[in-house]
Write a structure and sequence with these properties.
Elements (H helix, E strand, L loop, with lengths): L4 H15 L4 E7 L3 H9 L3 E12 L2 E11 L21 H5 L2 E4 L5 H8 L16 H9 L7 E8 L2 E9 L9 E7 L5 H19 L4 E6 L3 H9 L3 E12 L2 E10 L1
Antiparallel strand pairs: 1-3, 2-3, 4-5, 5-6, 6-7, 8-10, 9-10
Length: 256
């Protein structure tokens, strides 16, 4: 304590990141670890987003901070939404056409199709082309006993969108979005609304404290659904995704 070990390690981490050509460093820490927060701020890190009641430590819920340090300009930056025509409401007839359930093995062909839709995958870190073998391995990673889930919405047998999330274990038990994709060519806003509604039902059914969603700010269907369902924005990880040659901010939303 107080011997400069933390500063030495941080200096070396920043030096190595610059040597590798990294434009930014991200890290996480928790409320109550003020010594670490002061160290990171000394090196120029800023709190970009936080999970309120995101971590359970020593008998209490605390904020989980996400901090960033820009090493080089992240340009160009994309700020426009992927879809610009936000609907004022969702027609009841279209909602009735959507079925929401867990993803199953017999859905793999449809999963593969959606994961190779270049426009739809811009709301995630998934970059087509995705092989059938890769889609199958992705599906096989879903294990409810380990807290790994995927809720999907369908029109008939066609996947309109899905939400992959993780939940279940202390000190970070609340459900957290890992990947959300909707088919931008067919009912994207209805699909986004359906999967957000489903994960809220999941939280209520199993008694989780909160839900945390990480979504590119340019993904208007999913962002719109989160805000419609009273998710609150708690900052954004600046220039966290790189989509079609542009840096994109990833917003953090919490519910309730």
């Amino acid at each position: 304590m107080g011997k400069g070990v933390g500063s030495a390690l941080m200096n070396e981490a920043i030096r190595l990141a610059k040597e590798l050509g990294c434009r930014k460093i991200m890290l996480g820490t928790t409320e109550g670890n003020e010594r670490a927060v002061r160290l990171y701020k000394k090196f120029g890190f800023k709190i970009e987003a936080y999970e309120d009641d995101g971590v359970y430590i020593e008998g209490s819920w605390r904020k989980n901070y996400i901090m960033g340090l820009e090493l080089a300009p992240c340009e160009p930056k994309l700020e426009r939404p992927l879809l610009t025509h936000l609907p004022t409401s969702l027609p009841a007839t279209s909602k009735a056409d959507i079925n929401v359930r867990q993803l199953m093995e017999h859905d793999l062909d449809e999963l593969h199709r959606l994961q190779n839709c270049t426009e739809s995958t811009k709301s995630s870190h998934r970059i087509p082309p995705i092989t059938k073998e890769e889609a199958k391995r992705w599906y096989e990673e879903l294990k409810s006993m380990e807290g790994k889930y995927c809720i999907a919405c369908f029109k008939g047998d066609k996947i309109l969108g899905y939400l992959r999330f993780r939940a279940g274990f202390l000190p970070f038990p609340s459900p957290r979005f890992e990947e959300a994709i909707v088919d931008v060519n067919e009912m994207p806003y209805e699909s986004a609304d359906a999967i957000v509604r489903a994960v809220k039902d999941f939280r209520e059914r199993y008694g989780y404290r909160r839900i945390f969603a990480y979504i590119p700010e340019t993904s208007s269907p999913i962002v719109g659904a989160l805000e419609h369902h009273s998710f609150n924005k708690a900052g954004a990880m600046k220039c966290y995704y790189f989509v079609d040659g542009y840096y994109v901010d990833v917003a953090l939303y919490g519910y309730p």
